[in-house]
Protein 1
Amino acid sequence: MITLSLLDLSLAALLVVALALSSLRIYPEIAGQLTIAAIRTAIQLTLIGLVLKALFASSDVLWVALLSVFMLAVAGREVMARQHWRFSGWWGYGIGALSMFISSFSVALFALIIVIGNDPWYQPQYAIPLLGMLLGNTMNGIALALDRLTSTASEQRDVIEARLMLGYSQREAIAEIRQQVFRTGLIPIINAMAAAGIVSLPGMMTGQILAGAPPVEAVKYQILIMFLISGGAGFGTLAALHFGVKRLFDERLRLRLDRLHKAG
Amino acid sequence: MLILEHLSCVVLQGISLVLEDAELVCLSGASGSGKTRLLRAIADLDLNSGVVQLDGTARDAIDPQAWRRQVAYLPAESRWWAPTVGEHFRDPASVPFDQLGFDKAVIDWKVERLSSGERQRLAILRLLENHPRVLLLDEPTANLDPQSTERVEALITKYIRDARAACLWVTHAIDQIERIARHQLLLDNSCLKTAVAA
């Protein structure tokens, strides 16, 4: 594999700088956001590179667990930050984080222990990238789904209550909303799987090929990852839907929009 | 028989009320006095505290779905969610549409083409489909013409008589109160007062 020098990266960074400069005139705020995001990417990825280097050297299960929990905590914050209508209190953070924990962690464990079967199963070279990809994708699905759930419940309050007044069950009262929310959570991965290989060459596979892996081996890993991600995102969305709906209604089947607050 | 003791919600404090079987009570009060809040609290749609009993059974002992079928609340403005009228009824074939001036073809009518008066009359039929023990009606005839108003009054009073149901009917029309109710309550400053029939 050809190693990249600092100069190589700087050349690529010129592209971002050029873009920032040209966007100054159209929309100065975007130029700022672009610059900050680019700097964040460089710093965050360098840090995780150093962390992974140290982690690979030690291979201690405790450190793997610690990093996993840290990644989950950040992902939970990100899910909350993307909600226009948030559940008040700890629920705003908890529903997203818990759903991601249930889906990403169990799917990652399933993949590491049963599918890949490494020894030891927590070997960080496999465990961390796998969990990272799972968390990133389930985070997207769950954030979209929860945002859809809370915003449609707020918009369609009258219809939901009209059905409750007629003695409909909670499930009947929000039937279409459930469907829409579930669809919203799954659409990104469905699109990604449908376009894979034709429109887009997925990043992980491309990376393995660049690193010199035989294409067919890289493809097998990519298929595995796609299936794992759809499981993680799908079950994560289901979990978020379950907890979210539970929180939207109380034990007397009242729609409790007072448990939401508008962000920002 | 519906009994409220010290019912309180966001804007109302300590409301007590007894609605006897086969009794129709009219409720009036200035706008903003909390009439809608009271009906919503009885139907358990908003957070509320106090004792509510139906035929001697506490509300908390009754499943919320069953409660709202028995203690039926008609909001001032009805909501429709499916394209056709029939989809909003559990068993459209057995609904007495003719009693409020519709023929059976109404089942296939498009909701978006209904007038506000038609919506209101259909919402009343939709509510009665649950055979409620108590009716909580929020200005049910506010946007109806005199003929439809008369039909609705006849249908509701007949239902109350036949099913021995109780009814709390929010209205401002004095002539209507005289036609349908023996008792009139006035909601004022979180207090229910018996109004003397004019």
Protein 2
Amino acid sequence: METIFDKSKSGRRSTYLNEDDLTSKKPSDELDGDLLRGEKPGLPEISQPELMRHFVELSKKNYGVDDGLYPLGSCTMKHNPKPNEDLAATEEFQDHHPLASPDLVQGNLRLMYELGELLKGVSGMDGITLQPSAGAHGELTGMLMIRKYHEVRDELERRTEILLPDSSHGTNPASAAVAGFDAVEIKSNDEGTVDIEGLKEATSEKTAGIMLTVPNTLGIFEKDILEVAEIVHDAGGLCYFDGANLNAFLGRVRPGDLGMDITHFNLHKTFSTPHGGGGPGAGPVGVKEKLLPYLPIPVVEKTGDGYSFDYDRPKSIGKVNSFPGAFGVLVKAYSYILSLGDEGLKRVSDNAVLNANYLKEKLKDPYKLDYEGVCKHEFVLNGSGMGEGIKTLDIAKRLLDYGYHPPTVYFPLIVKEALMIEPTETETKENLDEFTETMLKIAAEAMEDPELLHEAPTETPVGRLDETQAARNPVLRWTESE
Amino acid sequence: MANNKDLKYTEDHDWVEKTGHRAKVGITDYAQKELGDIVFVELPAEGEEFSKGEDLVVVESVKSVSNVKAPVSGTVTEVNDRLEGEPELINESPWKDGWLVELDVENEKEFEELMSEDDYEEFSAE
């Protein structure tokens, strides 16, 4: 389709400004010459109906969870209740300046305090910061607190290593490295969980901590987590729990009861903020008592009848965000938790696990499953050997022809031709059955007519894109063609 | 397979070709096929020192980003600059033009510990 610039015709307007409303000041009256652009800004000139048609056409080409199943493993693309959006858009919440004096925004502070208390309850942690803007930001915040913990003990110099199972989220080693640690990989065992012997070998006086993704990226719960915690603690390290997959055990298990010292939440995955649109998100972090002094400032406190920001925390790692958090996301999480309650949160995880296991059992033949057993909220199929020259990429592309967003592919790296599927708790059995039928149809096509898959997608607005060319020679902005 | 009996291999599907003290490092044909089209390569600086097992090169494909670990300890004497503009050389010519770095080998014994051609063939057939 044409870009809005292609549709531009000189002199067309979608709004006409009343001259009385215009200021007579020119930019050059206000700004120095070197701050002024010499040429026109190059904005498209288009009439209002054409403008509307352009964006409506674009929106029809989009695919989101409001269109259908979106089984993108590791991303929890689930339905987010719309009433929570209305609450976040309430002007009392939306129109408050993030730097307003606390006595003028007591309601906002109360919400933050109470959300913190709810998250403590969910996670079994003793303190919370709401500042981090996303999961990986939460991970980094956690790593910085681990640094501080060892620094205060005068052990930072020798504790340089963070242990990372090869089934952890890809952001984990990155967060450890950004915080200045060396990432040490631990291989998984045949069951897809942390290899205890390997962990014992890797643990030493250099160990600063471990980062565990639970359930891991294979969708498997770390059944030896108590032993893992003991091994790391005995060596003087701390345990970080990547809580991005919290919808797998919400209301059933708490990281704080499993020997974990720090955890983060992805409010934009688990707690009702649409995910995948590029933000904003929120990645609050919970810590056990021994790490409370290191929480980022300010911490929201209840003082008498009101609420305040506590900045007087000399051992804090400092601020990790200019503002106290992505407030709209916090409102949605608060509303989500309170509207579901204890029982509702349990049903969230029960249904997430039930849906994933149902789909896994339906698809494990003819697709292959490398790690048998009960999964949690997601599972990983092995897409190799499905037909002549068929790769997972071909299967994913063919799904587009049937109107589905494909699963995550080629991750985690420990499964060949990985297809990582997360149906989430918000899909009905009928939707799962329909998806199963499509997947089985594609498997049959792969055997009978592999060319069909190699050429897919053919039903979409554009055919198979040249991903290699896009990565090697990306065209990142529109420029006027001569 | 390259049919070059001077080559040694790692379990991560890297090859090492040793000439005197120098060891050229690349990834095998199997590895490049598994990775798919390579789109970006991050090479170390000449003179940088690596211990065996440390991350030496970052290879990014359309599918994933992976680290090539130093197969032996040593100092980087040369890197394949052509890869910066032509990462596809790894796909087109993994054994020759797509080589990654050359190391000055610190400990000859580490080289001997690597897999032989026959061992590697057996290993990658699994």
Protein 3
Amino acid sequence: MGKRLVVIGNGIAGIATVDEVLRFDPDMQISIFGKEPHLGYNRVLLSEVLAGKMGMDSIYLKNRDWYDKNNIDLHLGVKVIGIDTLNKKITAEDGSTINYDSLLVATGSSSYIPPIKGVEKEGVFPFRNIEDTEGILNGARDSIYDGKVIASVVYDPEGILEKVKMSKRALVIGGGLLGLEAARALSLHGVEVTIAHIMERLMEQYLDETASGMLKDEMERMGIRVLLNCEAVEILGYPRVRGVSFRDGGIYDTDLVVIAAGIRPNLGLAVSSGIMVDRGILVDDHMETSVKDIYAIGECAEHRGRTYGLVAPIMEQAKVAAEAVCNRDGAIYEGSIPASVLKVMGINLMSIGEFSGQPGDLEEIVYKDLSASIYRKILVKENRVAGAILLGDVNDGPRILRLIKEGIDISSVRSRILFGDQSSGAAVMTDADLVCRCMGITKGMIVTAIEEHGITSLNGVAQHTKACTSCRGCSPIIDQILQEVLGGDYSVEPKDPPICSCINLPQRELREKIIEKGLKSVKSVLINFATAPGCDKCKPAISYLLNEIWIDDYEENRSARFINDRVHANIQKDGSFSVIPRVPGGVVTSEELRRIANVADKYKVPMVKITGGQRISLLGIRKDQLPFIWSDLGMRSGHAYTKAVRTCKTCVGNLFCRVGLQDSIGLGIAMESRFQGVSTPAKIKMGVSGCPRNCAEATIKDIGVVGIQDGWEVYVGGNGGNRVRSADLLVSVKSGDDAIRISGLFLQYYREDGRFGERTSSFVERIGMDKIKETLFDDSLKNVRLGERLDLSLAVLKDPWEEGSKPVAVRQFEELGAYEG
Amino acid sequence: MKDKMIKVGKISDVPEGEGRVFRLGRSEIAIFRLDSAIFVVDNKCPHKSGPLADGIVAGDEVICPLHGHRFNLKTGLSVGDDERINTYPVFVEGEDLFIEDGFAE
């Protein structure tokens, strides 16, 4: 029979530990006591439940199956009232006793009620339930985790919300994280709110004077008054509050008072059991208390003089405690770096580690822009980051946290340390780093879910992991992780991601295997390598690969193509399509314009729009109109609907421009005419400028050419989309022909090695310019082959709009019923 | 029985693995042909009215081309979201496909 672990507390800390214990020792017999009658749940989300945004079912940390499956002896709604440390036995309030081999105390904390006269009056509410204050032995009600307010005004069985609505003015006592978030919550209900804070600045535990001052300005900008050095001494009025009097003699008229003056660890059980406590239950580096085999973690524990009320440290502590419980000696806990985030709508604030220091001890690197409300301060000790305050933009938080955790010497990057690589929030996180602080979801959990379930959207991540279902503050980071995993716009990828959940192979490997086995249809590829029927991710990717590998010697399967590639037009939000004919270099004849105008009239085209790529788009076209419109236009497809070479934007160049150095129009037309429509992993936009003034914006194109005094510069990997990226210079050449030839080599390299859906901006960052140059210029064998293969692909290209008169699928453009004989 | 049936087309009108639309008045249904089985469902995605007949099929599910919502063609239930589309029994007589009148209501 396995050892018995008894856990007092059914919250995040207790359950996280049990989770870890079960990994190490599935035979451990586990009993959990929870004071509350519910299964363990994530308190952070209670407000969402009460607001009706989430069901109670979705905030349980574990469902009942989990308790059952792991044979957990669960005691809900039962307080533990005594620990007999000598006989290793606990006693619960229902009189039951149970022996333990190891005991975990995870009793959390309760709200602190300051000694103010009259706090019992009507209209005065602690931020959490007042019942909690009476000597609770385990389980903290409405605790705060991770600096995030839980219940605020919404969670209250007495109906505070109703009372709030009737109130016109409210006073929040306490200017810490809790008080600020409470104040903002109240103000959103239309109440006039004032914060009374006993200290000389807001959030004094986390912020320096400057940041506190700026925060105060921001709160006041939101209409929330802030009184500092202001101590409430008495609640006035009877039976209901009418006002509050302060130490300095001032009186504030109000009919609602919310007390958010901090939390206190729940220590009663530990004290009465003879376990040593100070501010919290004292624990060593194995999370063991002064009594052997009794461990404590979470908000009730004090380690090396510190207590933590944040999710991340609790998770770290849980791992260590679990190892100790299972007699695995490896892990020790050396403390956490507190990183607190204030989540108040409209304010971004993060405080990490140390925030101020004595002169000579800590150096400060500061950026301050008062009118833009941006403040960034990094504290440096012996060339290592010791802490930071970020106000206005917290995306950089994970990077700084990492610098602190790893103790990285920053001397070489010191001049850039304040701003670093701003967009790389997710990229510098480890799998163990928390992304969603509300639900306790790590980056690793999200990455695994993305890979296992083929997730491609934030919603998908939310559904599968529950990350980002509460405050949603982590959505930018999750976006970055998605891009990172799916090869979107990020270069740092730990490994080659599989194509999707159907095919567990990276694209590179799949490509090799398709060639090796000579597979020439989507079906045969799926039969050989897929574990699922094929989906909207892998089918188009396989179709692309077959075309790229076998050129025209493969079986094209339109059911494996996205609708745009079935009908050669871009589907719009209403199911209609856009038609963009090709006008190489953006140069169009009057005759073509006349035909476009005639089509617009004849088919009553809802909108004719000049595009960003120097073309003309006909919008709102029905699918069945496409063949007729193509025929009337008598122009080639512009491929503006597909992953292929699209357009080449040009400036006027030396044909007309008085400062033009080169014939950009001529080169642009030649480039577009040569490469038009060849399939690529993601769309290709090109540009040619006739001089370095670069009016064609060639340096934010996938392939851009810029005329210089005696030749051309070729750039690759630019992007003007959601992450603007300046293209990298590939080479300078003398002639336009060379520019086209080298662009072609790059294009083919990208066609063969780019991941489906990966733009050149990401491709260039992933492969690196050095490798690209080496392949295109030094490896004579490879570059000759690249050129040859591109030529073969270009040689067989057909204008897809020819399918208008020669459809390749049954009723390719028509609905059923039409043309019924 | 024929009186209550509407002919929506022939099996050969729908390519294997794809969907096609049948329209009656303002109502639209999507007809899919998958491994010789025929499925008939609402054409409009409940999310933003995307044309499901234009979606890629994954197994017995279709993925809306606009925003990727996913529906089981047999049950009409969405995968992941709380949405559903109507499914309609289809009758095959020789090459012809019929569904019961009334879908347009």
Protein 4
Amino acid sequence: MLKRIGVALAVITMVTFLVSVGCRKRSKETDEKGPDTASAKPLYKATGNEGSITGKVSYEGAAPELKKIDMSGDANCAAAGGDKTADDVVVTDGKLANVFVYLKGGVTDKNRFDTPSEPVVLDQQGCRYHPRVFGIQVNQTFKVTNSDKTTHNIHPSPKTNPEWNRMQAQGSPAIEEKFGRPETLIPVKCNQHPWMKANIGVLSHPFFAVTAKDGTYTIKDVPPGTYTLVFWHEVKGEQTQQVTVGNKETKTQDITYKAGATARATSMEIGPALILP
Amino acid sequence: MIDLKNEASAGLNIGLHRIAVLLSCATVVLLVAGALVTSNEAGDSVPDWPVSFGRWLISSNNFVANVRFEYSHRVIAGIVGLITLVLAGWAFATERRSWLRKLGLIAFAGVLAQAGIGGLRVLFPEYKALIAVLHALVAQSFFAIVVSIVVFTSRSWFEPRKTKPDSESWPLRRVASATVGAVLIQLVLGAGFRHQAFGIVPHIVGAAVVTILIVSMVVILMRRHGEDDYLARPGKLVFGLLFVQLCLGVAAYVARVTSAGDPQPLEPMISLTVAHLVVGALTLATTVVIALRCYQVLEAGADKAVDTINPGKLHSSARGAAV
């Protein structure tokens, strides 16, 4: 019996060692690979014929009840001002906010685009992330600030970019990071305050927008061409439309999400295709 | 090969037994703390390891929200590690059975390995599911080892008992061993589901297999040895635990499904999940007790003569009763 237990422990130790080595190797490989292959593509230069895509995202059916967040675990969060209700599905007058809208295909696949020099800022205020959904370009600086009187940890869980988890105490300098590869979308979480959630769309181009409270969005400076317009909502899922933008044309592309449908990724998956409500 | 029957030279080691009981209780507390970490999604709330926010003792300002669960888990794990060290040392100094001394060292090695795996879980969040499942496997295995030390050092283990024949068809000792293995695997499948390493199907299939095995084991045990409290009592207990565990499993699952839209983990999902994990661990512990006692008092072959195990006399055929 002792021999068997000894062998089992040795196996566990070996597995742990291999996992550790594997983790380090993969982390190193991921870091070394750096950005995607976009650098081989020609840099897009504006021609002056660019158009835009605008529209509204509607919500059909009864708006979901806004659930209360329990912040009593951290007195600083409980005392902080601001909204204390869930903001995963925000519907105002039948319009859906926080839908990430972006282009796929066409020029976005064939060209590379300049990386903006200004950072995208994610602020922690009232123990909430501001904004909840946002886009960023590959290798653009992602700056995280903490305006709260408590400590947070910022933990994005990407699938193709390296995962990281860093703490940020009150008054700490901003955390600056970059994402080297396109990825839609990366969930961000504060594990200390589990209601704090955000989503980052990392794209190789600047053609994206997030719907405002009134459900509107505008993607500017779109090169003429045919694209797939993707609408992504963290609970309501993804919808697509084909869109062709002519020279200096402004296209209007509206879409509707229906109440009841959900694409919430939970641990409730029973099989590959079946997800419980 | 280990002789699970009482060795002539072995005596009751009350000190070691008390430490083992204390360690098993502390381990249950640690399992509760670990379950609270998972259920509250607090696993990454302290991003560094082995220190927490760069310190061994964190400030009260940091001990808020989910950090309470993660840091408490680390502190309780440290206490369990210390008790395990004391147990291993005590066994080494006072225990006459060499294999039990080794078991104490294995328990200490297990707790060290577990600490290392816990560290990997924190430092490599991209592999959290895989490492968390390994963490759960070692946790439950460690608990089983500690429970077996409690059994080996208990007063009832040293009481004179008659050996009994074990049937050649469906031998109880084999059924009990298989049940221990199945319960351990099922606990790992449950951890895999909680940590989203895999879906619910393997855990449901595992529940069916474990239910069949435990019911079969208890039916065989009660039919053949129902009059012997030494075997029947843990048999009845594991049957009750199985019933409670199945109810808790269904309730925890329903609570999890219905709370999928909640902004954060809330009651009753947290308590039901924690209770489900703890009752699972107690089920494992009880099956370990049954298996060890079966190997102690049952002999292979139905036709063998009934004999008595006595701490003062080493039974000649007992040497074959190694697990």
